[in-house]
Structure formats: structure tokens, C-alpha cells
Amino acid sequence: MSHVSTHGASDAPSFEGRTALVVDDDPDLLLQLQVGLEAIGFRVVAAHGEAETESLLPDLLAGRRPDVAILDLMMEHDDSGFILAWRLKRTFPGLPVLLVTAVSHRTGMDFDAATRDERSWVRADAVLTKPVRFDQVRRELSRLLGPA
Amino acid sequence: METLRILVVDDEPGMRLGMTRCIEGLTVEVPEVRQVVGFTVETAEDGQGALAALASFRPDLLLLDYKLPDLSGLEVLKHIHEHQLDVLTIMVTAYATLETAIVATRQGAFDFLAKPYNPGELRGVVQKAARHLVLGRQARRLEEEKRKVRFQFISVLAHELKSPLAAVEGYLYLLQDPTLLAGRPEAAQQVVERSLVRLEGMRKLITDLLDMTRLESGQKARNLMSMDLAAVVTDLVRNQEPVAAPRGIALAVEAPAPVAVTADAGEVEILVNNLVSNAIKYNRDGGTVTVQVRTGPAGEALLSVTDTGIGMAPEEQARLFGEFVRIKNARTANILGSGLGLSIVRKIVDLYHGRVEVRSTPDVGSTFTVTLPLPDEGRA
Questions:
Q1: Is there a smaller number of Cβ atoms within 10 Å at the N or the C end of chain A?
Q2: For B126-137, how does the pLDDT look when each residue is reduced to its tens digit (9 = 90+)?
């Protein structure tokens, strides 16, 4: 399942052996992230929403701790991503969180995680606005995790 | 009761008092909008006073003497026109010649009252103007409401169209990077399949949208003819076999006797296809769709479509027939729909003065029942 890319290791760092928790209520975005992340070496734990992620927490705690979490913002609730980010960071201290959101588009609410102040409020280490291309995700992951 | 403001402008104190007395306490019924209108009156004794009161009192109606000490009535009309004031003017004049009438009408006067007049005539013109005003405002409100609904519809529609586009775009970006899916044919296959599914969903949305627009515009001539609903439904259900078979869903039609209806074949097709395709879509693999067609006790046609699928909770059933309503829960996450199908079903059933009802139990299934009254009962 995890395939190590044999092409250009320089521009495509491998994240072999790392685990990504991916949460999105849109099955297509979830599948896209899963396919893309697996292609660059991640083991992917996927969940369809806030509640499903909560139910996975014991497993994650017992098994391998995720190296990064990629969370959609608006799921069951408008702030599901924020709540999950807060909970995950408490459960896994130091866990980098990437928030993926259409929020600025849909509600006019705008924020990013560029400054320390904003990071503490948002409780995410990076924010991407939908529509998201996979190479943007990959770039953020390289920045957050460093090359493997 | 709505109260309209009337400004009375006349340089004779007696005229002002008489008019005020005559109008205060007057009520006008506007049965078309089920409204009764009353009046509150203010007065002005010259042109400048009239202009000041137009700004401060903001009258709905203006009873304007043609001949004032400082300005002429026409100059007041010009002021109203220039400032685009929302006021209906009734010109009161002792010189009610055809010529003054034409000039004042050009300047925007709504009506005339010739001096001398009796109280009945005064009330008559005021009532006529008030009705005109209330109906005009009502029409504007409805127009505004329609614009809002339309805007909302288009916003949701745009969102519903953007969502499959974004999904397909995301998949294409994955395929665009030659390093990502190389050596992973299964993943690549999944990516292509999901893209096709989303595009098909988008096509269905556009088809539904066209069906709905056609129904609402009333532009397509309806071709009502006598038909045997049992035979028509049997054929339509058979056409859905290719969709049901891959999931092992059995389609059964129970139509023991002919059921005569007068209907438009195109509308019946859209109606049946929507109900049956929902029954397949929301079914479990290996489930059953049972379609019954029969004549009810009062001679009405009854069509019911029963599935053995995921069913719905009562609160979900209540919202079901709205536009772009899709029941979102874990069981429906992977089922695509335009959110217009049942809204279209309801619109068609309404055309026949019929009813559509749903009974459903979560995890057991749903039954949609359409009742079409005999054509001579309700007007089809």
C-alpha cells in the first residue's frame, strides 16, 4: 500500500514510516488526501468527521501516534476543525496540525496561522484555503515535518 | 390596519379643515391583500409649506390645490418628480380643463378632483388612490420576495455545481503529478472512477434543473392524454434494471389491473423515474424495490414505491421535499443526488392536485405514495 516514489527524491521528499490523521466530511477530499499522502509515503488514518475522529482516539493512543493531522474546519459543526485541533494537541502534545478550510470563501471569515498570536488562537500550525491542490499540502507538510 | 399619511395643501383654512374632517376616520378596504387602510392627515397652506411637509411628514398621498399663493401645483409636482418622492398626487382644481389635466398628468399627478366637490367625491378619489398605492406596494413586495428566493436558489445551485468541479479538479491534480500514482494502478483507477461518478452527478443535477425549469415556466405545452398508469409504470421500472442489477437490487411491479389516468407522459416519466431511482439509490445491496399501482376507493390512482434501504428519521422526513435538501448522515455520505428530485416530484404531483406522502423507518426502508385524484375531481 505504501509506495516509495522512485522519481526525483529531491523535489518529492518521502514521508515513509510517518502517520497522518486525515479528517474531512467530503469523501472526495478525504480520498484525494489519502491517495496523495500514501503516494509520498504516509500511513493514513482517515476519518469522516469530528465524531468519528473522537472514536478513533483510543486506537491512535494505543497504536502509533500520528505525526501530523490534516483537518477540515467545517464538518458536523462550523468549528469542528478547531475543536479537534485543540483536542488532538492536548492528546498528542506537539502534534503539527494543518487546517483545510473553505471558511474565508463561504463566510467571509478570514484568518491564517502566519503569526504566533494567530497560531495560538487557531490552534493550527498551518491553514490552507479550499480548493486545495495536493502539491500545496505536500509543501506545507515538508515545512511542518521537514524532509524525512 | 395600515395607516397612510395624507398631506392636504390648500390656502383656504376652511378647505383644509373640511378635507381633514372628511378623510380622518375614513377606512378603505383592499380585499385583494386582505387589508384595511386608515389615514392620518397633515396640512400645509402654501407651496413652500408643502415642500417642507413633503420632506418632514413624508406623505403617501398628496391632495394638492392647483393654485397656491406662492408656487403653482405644477411646480410642486416638478419638485416631487425631481426628488423622486414616493407620493401619489391628487390635483384639486377649480379650473379642471382638459389642458390642465394633461399637463399635470405629464408631471406625474395620479388623479383629479374638481372644485366644487362633495365629501363623497373626495372620499372616492382618496379611496381609489389608496387602493392603487397598497396594491402597488404589495406587488413590489412580492417582486422583491421573488428576487430573494431566486437569488437564494441560484446561490445554492452554484455551490452544488462547484462542489463536483472541485472534486474532479482535485483528482486531476493528483493524476497530473507523474510521480504520485505511478505504480499504483488501483489508486489511479479509484481516482478516475470517483471523477466519473461526480461528473455523472453533475449531469443529473443539470437534467433535474432543466426538468424543474420546464415545469415551472409552464412553457412546455402539456399533452394530457388517457393512459394506463399500470402499463406505463411497468415499462419505466423495467428501464431502471441496468441501474439496479449491479447492486443485486430486485425491482418488482405489482399492478394487477389497468389504472386509467389522464396525464402528460413526460411528467409521469419524470415522476416515476425520480421515485424509483431514489428507491434504488438509498437501498441496501441485494435489497428490493416494490412498485405498486392500483385504483383507490374513490377512483383515484395510487402509486407507491417501497424500498428496503436506509430509511429516515421523522425529522429528516419533514424536510424532504424542499429544494436542495439532502439528508446528510453517515449512511448517505457516499450517495450522490441533486437534491432536486423530490422537489420535482412534489411539483408534478401538485400539477395534478395530488398528494405525495412518505412513511419511513430508519434501517428498514421507505414508502413513497403518490395519489392522483380522478381528473374530473380536481382540474389536471
A1: N
A2: 999 999 999 998
